[in-house]
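Intended use. Records like the one below are meant for learning the mapping from a protein sequence to its folded structure. Do not use them to infer anything beyond what is encoded.
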Amino acid sequence: MQDLIGYDEIIESSMRSVIYETLKKIEKTGLPGKHYFIVTFATKFAGVSIPKSLMEKYPEEMTIAIQYQFKSLIVEEECFKISLSFGGKFEKLMVPYRSITSFADPSMNFALKFSMIYGDVEDFSSENHFDENNLANKSKKKVKEIDLSQKVISLDAFRKNNKPNSDINS
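Structure written out for the chain above:
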């Protein structure tokens, strides 16, 4: 049966709102206790902005840790901005939530993995580097799709009643 409601998109959006809400709390109060986050994102996704040197090192995907050496966390509805230390030098990053392929808080054994197919990945030329207005200035070229479904466990296993010949409504 075809999903005419779009449950996968609704679930993806809900899971991304967990990231937004979590980072919003951290923006206000800082990291409590032993919490820290591991965030992986597609570097060529529309709206991602990282320094040229990092783009050269991580041309497709980048994983960052939000733990000790970060500052200037700004959490917005569509993205978060953060300065992280790379080799002792703070660099500014802008990461749209839709570019995130995984989010984890290892201290709580909590992780989210995303399986949505992205058509918004854009070619990131060597001229593109961090710019506060980058989200507004970038055109949204559709260059290729990234299918992350092979990297995650399908939610289908949890949606279906696995008992043979049983009816959910009975």
